[in-house]
Write a structure and sequence with these properties.
The chain is an alpha/beta fold and about 400 residues long. The chain is built from 12 helices and 15 strands.
């Protein structure tokens, strides 16, 4: 039974990666007999997961082959992505086409249970209608995660977020398998399957929101590390910062031990700008009579507000240092930046690139392409849905 599930899962992955593939080509790729592939594909067609396409996309000796494609109506997957401020959920059909999406805000006062309730509510908002069927859920979790046990281990920016069981309660409530992954890695999965990581072998995705993490892809495979802690770069201690970094510290003096995410995250930039304007620094943001949000940062940057650009430059150069360190260690061909900071475009990207290039060229190291993700704010949710697609096996459904 388990072997059947594994073979059928591999067939679905091949059809997903190569729409229009024939049974003969499937047999070659999987290195199993064509008759065996025929038996498995017949069951997958009967179950509604694969459809036969009359278009003859491949030509081989003898009888023209029938092209195989995923059936969009074969079922749905849901991906959930969250961090300290936001919860994003997205449903996709069996052919990976996005269907519905939902957003929930997390308040600083929210308890762990309140956040779980909001995750459940977001999932409920994107559930299939009566004609669809939910097959699995993927969840991108901030901070440390134990995927095999379905536990969110720790996240610095949510109060009391310690050893939170997520997978089992969600699986019980929605009646489907639930898979967890660190959300920086779920962003990397989105880029790997749908974005700028496609056809790349060795590259990085740096997710920058309330915290900072890196999804590492080596040899075309997502890397998790020995204890699922690969890519926790937000805790790196930065080198001594310039005088322009004074507002990143509560006392106006940059600490000798400031973490990367205390300087270069969205939360850090907002905090620095808030301290600067409260201290009386000249800025167009002085007119705001409420706490700043990221839309204010975008607006001020587009107006070329000097203080805002100065603080963004400190964050960008610090990220450039991080990119150079990762490049020395991993030699990626590409570094993809994901998260709200990408909305700043070249305002952020140019000083980041220049810093990374200067540091790498000094040592004669290769300089990777450094680009912004183009997948938008739901990239992590799409990656979490892709995680569910990747981990799910059809036998689990058919045996239910």
């Amino acid at each position: 039974m388990q072997q059947m599930a594994s073979v059928e899962s591999e067939i679905l992955k091949q059809v997903r990666a190569h729409p229009g593939i024939s049974r003969v080509s499937l047999a070659r790729k999987l290195q199993i007999a064509p008759s065996t592939v025929g038996n498995y594909t017949a069951r997958l067609i009967a179950e509604g997961f694969i459809i036969e396409d009359p278009d003859k996309l491949e030509f081989e000796m003898g009888r023209p082959p029938t092209a195989l494609r995923l059936n969009p109506d074969g079922g749905q997957f849901i991906g959930v992505d969250f961090e300290a401020r936001n919860i994003m959920a997205m449903a996709v059909d069996f052919s990976d086409r996005p269907l519905k999406q939902a957003h929930k805000s997390i308040d600083q006062s929210d308890s762990v249970q309140t956040i779980i309730d909001k995750i459940e509510h977001a999932i409920q908002q994107v559930l299939p209608d009566q004609h669809g069927r939910l097959l699995a859920i993927g969840v991108g979790v901030p901070g440390l995660v134990n995927p095999s046990k379905g536990i969110a281990v720790h996240y610095k920016y949510i109060s009391d977020w310690q050893n939170v069981a997520l997978a089992a309660p969600l699986a019980k409530k929605f009646g489907v398998p639930v898979y967890l992954e660190n959300n920086a890695r779920s962003m990397a999965l989105a880029e790997l399957w749908f974005g700028q990581g496609r056809a790349q072998k060795d590259w990085l995705c740096i997710g920058i929101r309330s915290g900072i993490g890196a999804g590492i892809v080596a040899g075309g495979q997502l890397q998790r590390g020995a204890n699922n802690r690969a890519g926790e770069i937000g805790r790196w201690i930065c080198p001594k910062l310039s005088k322009g970094a004074a507002f990143f510290s509560n006392n106006g003096e940059p600490s000798q031990k400031m973490e990367l995410q205390e300087v270069a995250s969205v939360r850090a930039i907002l905090s620095a700008l808030e301290r600067a304007r409260q201290s009386g620094k000249k800025t167009c943001l002085s007119r705001r009579d409420r706490p700043l949000n990221f839309e204010d940062v975008l607006d001020a940057a587009r107006q070329r507000d000097h203080l805002t650009l100065e603080i963004i430059q400190v964050a960008a150069e610090t990220l450039g240092w991080a990119v150079s360190e990762l490049s020395f260690a991993l030699n990626p061909s590409r570094v993809i930046l994901a998260g709200p900071l990408t909305l700043l475009g070249e305002i952020m990207l140019q000083p980041l690139r220049e810093c990374a290039q200067d540091l790498l060229r000094e040592s004669g190291a290769d300089v990777p392409a450094i680009v912004n993700s183009t997948m938008g704010e739901y990239s992590g949710a799409l990656g979490a849905a892709a995680l569910a697609v990747h981990e799910w096996k059809p036998r689990a459904v058919s045996a239910a």
